[in-house]
Task: inverse folding
């Protein structure tokens, strides 16, 4: 679990730094905006990891196979909760303020809703089939 979180954090931190540098140093406005729009990936990560945390922590009965128990254990507990909280804190830090009615805020809100819809559809399909 610890190795997974360390690996995820290293990728996330490096990727976010790279996007920030690309947005800051792009020589055209269109390129700056395109890099900045990748914040939607942060939104999708917050949605997915938050749902996994909630689901894994709601499990009282554990499946018989170790591979399934391992996946559940990976997505709950103090370390994973800390990871999810970090992602939420970062999203709140960089997301436009509530009173911001810009197209960026609208786009990111749409990305949030789409990510939630896709994750819910995934789980619905798994449980229904």
Result:
């Amino acid at each position: 679990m610890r190795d997974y979180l360390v690996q995820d954090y290293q990728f996330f931190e490096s990727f976010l730094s790279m996007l920030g540098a690309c947005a800051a140093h792009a020589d055209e406005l269109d390129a700056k905006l395109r890099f900045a729009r990748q914040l939607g990936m942060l939104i999708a990560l917050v949605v997915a990891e938050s749902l996994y945390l909630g689901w894994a922590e709601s499990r009282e009965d554990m499946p018989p196979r170790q591979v399934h128990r391992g996946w559940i254990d990976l997505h709950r507990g103090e370390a994973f909760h800390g990871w999810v909280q970090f992602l939420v804190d970062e999203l709140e830090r960089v997301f436009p303020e509530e009173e911001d009615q810009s197209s960026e805020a609208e786009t990111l809100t749409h990305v949030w809703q789409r990510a939630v819809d896709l994750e819910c559809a995934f789980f619905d399909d798994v449980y229904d089939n």
Notes: The CA atoms of residues 18 and 50 lie 24 Å apart.
